[in-house]
Amino acid sequence: MSKFGLQTVLSEAYGLEGVLFAGWLFGSLCLHSEKRMRGFAGQEAGMIEVRLFATFREGRKKIYQMDAEGLEKASDVLDLLQIPREEVAIYLINGRHSSVEDKIQDGDVLAIFPPVGGG
Amino acid sequence: MGTGYNGKIARINLTTGEITTETLDLELAKRFIGGRGLGTKILYDEGVAKVGPLSPENKLIYITGPMTGTKAPTAGRYMVVTKSPLTGMIASSNSGGKWGGKLKYAGWDALIVEGRAEKLSYINVEDEKIEILDAQRYEGMMSEKLDEELKKVHPSCSVLNIGPAGEHQALLAAIMNDKDRAAGRSGVGAVMGSKNLKAITVSAQRTVIPAADEEALKAAFEDCLKLIRENGVTGGGLPTYGTAVLVNIINNTGSFPTRNWQESYFEQADDTSGETLKEKYLVKNAACHRCPIACGRVVKVGDKVVGGPEYEPLWAYGGNCGVNDLNAIDEANMWCNEYGLDAISTPCTIAAAMELYDKGIITEEECEGMPLAWGSAAAIVEWTKRMGEGRGKLARLMADGSYRLCEYYQHPEISMSVKKQEMPAYDARGIQGIGITYATSNRGGCHVRGYMISPEVLGLPEQLDRTSVEGKAKWCMIFQDLTAVIDSMGLCLFSSFALGAPNYAALLNAGTGTSYTPEELLVAGERIYNLERLFNKAAGMRPEDDRLPKRLMEEPIQNGPSKGQRSRIDVTLPEYYKVRGWENAFPTEETLKRLGLEA
Questions:
Q1: Which value does ipTM take for this structure?
Q2: Which residues of chain B have pLDDT under 50?
Q3: Is B232 close to A89, i.e. CB distance below 8 A?
Q4: Mutation site for A-interface testing, chosen from B265, B278, B437, B462 by largest number of A Cβ within 10 Å
């Protein structure tokens, strides 16, 4: 019955990796954030699109078009947007469930969700 | 010391007017738990599988679970179990609100309604007293108005009723309770209409259900409440955005059926999302009996404050009809509640009609001034009203569901249904496991008979690859069996985002005095699922009824993140039968023996 245990749920939903890395990365990336965050600018070559949902929209935009240069992993985007990793439950790259450590590339669409459910 | 059950069932014969009290067989109750399980057992044993669904011989069982009305979190559910006129198979339609808890407080575990009243009637339950009363003055009355009128006569009552759709026996008719909660699926409202039964009012003095072990129940309740409050979904996502929060995530996986499943990504989905609903229309949350989640939405439609749409109607009226006008969806959903229509199958049938219209099969003339055009906000509102009223030939056809509609026009492939009931809001081409749920659901196209979206999309209890078929059959079976348990206990399925089988076993054992282990509880769920299948077999189900619409296998998704995907039910269904111990869609003798269901 461990499949239905809460611990499993929590450990699967909230990765704990890379928390220390986040602080350093945010510092280095925020210098370029003005350039990167263009809001609803539309997809251009060399850009990625980041879509935020539910509570992640509070104090942020719904969609960001970002220059892909210097953004290697999904976690880099979280740091740039100041979204704590432990708050992310679902991370989609081009509609596929992904890890925050997965590589991103030009033209990717990222969708980021806190814990959500329904039926 | 109690048992969680009242130990009493009322049998009400509307033909003769006879009302009798029967003692609940406690051993049988504990074996089939209650609610969905026990209701199916009664219906099966009484030979209802072979009767005409709209004949006086069909029976309507309104049944609670042993947890209904107790202190357990989300313990407000009841089931309507009957033979479905939509599918011709088992119907077990679940609802929340306050009515189920009231029935339990009044001292009854279930009401079994038989026969057909000579004139439109309603049943009034006041604790021990049950009476059949004249309802002719309420003929044609809408659900909310009827709720208010009956409360003037029985001031402290909770009201369950049908609207005009149930009265004219539309096969998509729902049973409503507490104004906007619905036992929505499989046409249970039509069965109530066929019995000339407009409503059941329930009043109760008592507010406590004695448990077998009050201390143990309190401890289990506290454990469960903590888990529900701490869980990101039940303690955060659902209370904040309601089920509507799914619009964006399902769309972003490219599994959001669009324009009657011709596509699976809706560009304007965000206009109809839980986030937009909260921002523009939400008045407040609403909670069912004893529910700490409060996922219900109360919204403004014009100058009215009404129950808001769940994810399913937001999708079915929205992307599935190509509509991005949230105000119109709120209104159409309100009309579903008022007329008493299934808010999944009704908009799905409109979507099928839109495809028929788009292809020139339904003509402009047949639309009588309201074209069934993709994206038409006016059409979803107007056609819902016409279906509710049974106004016009086409609307009457549509009110019997997409299968009969499309068959009439000789295009059955356009009906996106299983066992003649419309499939809900997740594309089984992009999410493989939910296709097994749809194909094998005993009540036809349905997501809540084994909510595979939880592991395949939401990552609960662990993240599976939604596009893979590997291991999905076993997962689906576990979800189906656990769901049968939750439905039978009288709890809300949403509790399972936070709770697992050990929690349910702890609650049930404390409430009833049983000693189920989590594993044994899953076997009890398996027994219920197999019994439903036996009911269907007796009702004439054929192996080929476990099928998905051809579109899901033959037309890969055309757009969005799941482009190119198609259902692999050809692989998963045989595997599913194997893990279930079924051959050719039905349990083997060996399986029946193992479950104690042999003849």
A1: 0.93
A2: none
A3: yes
A4: B462
